[in-house]
Amino acid sequence: MNKKNTSLNFREIGARIRTERENLDLTREKFAEIIELSPFYIGQIERGDRKMSVDTLIKISDSLHISVDYILKGCKKSNEELDLQKEFHVLESSEENYNKVLDEDIKELLSILQRCSKTEINLIKDMTKLIVPYLKNR
């Protein structure tokens, strides 16, 4: 009977975490603060020198808005996430118009939203609808 190779490559896991953290412009120190771990421990994980608990894995997954599957195995995103990425790509595809219309803050928001699931985007929309009227009345 053929068994699939189920071993994990902790250097690759760490590299994926580091890449995603850097994509969010988070320093190791700031990221460690967010997930309540030491920067030294985060560094060990990112280098593949140290394994992490399931709780830590979930904290990292949630804070970087990436799936546990992606962290562990580099698995592609779900169909829902791919559809969202296509929508963002269409928005960005006309680079000239994109650069004319969107300022840096909006570009940053779009970058953050690209990492969110459809459920998270809907939650953000609902929260925004509640917050914006309050901000306008200040």
TrEMBL record:
<dbReference type="InterPro" id="IPR050807">
    <property type="entry name" value="TransReg_Diox_bact_type"/>
</dbReference>
<keyword id="KW-0238">DNA-binding</keyword>
<dbReference type="InterPro" id="IPR010982">
    <property type="entry name" value="Lambda_DNA-bd_dom_sf"/>
</dbReference>
<dbReference type="GO" id="GO:0005829">
    <property type="term" value="C:cytosol"/>
</dbReference>
<dbReference type="GO" id="GO:0003700">
    <property type="term" value="F:DNA-binding transcription factor activity"/>
</dbReference>
<dbReference type="GO" id="GO:0003677">
    <property type="term" value="F:DNA binding"/>
</dbReference>
<protein>
    <submittedName>
        <fullName>Helix-turn-helix transcriptional regulator</fullName>
    </submittedName>
</protein>
<dbReference type="InterPro" id="IPR001387">
    <property type="entry name" value="Cro/C1-type_HTH"/>
</dbReference>
<feature type="domain" description="HTH cro/C1-type">
    <location>
        <begin position="17"/>
        <end position="71"/>
    </location>
</feature>
<dbReference type="Pfam" id="PF01381">
    <property type="entry name" value="HTH_3"/>
</dbReference>
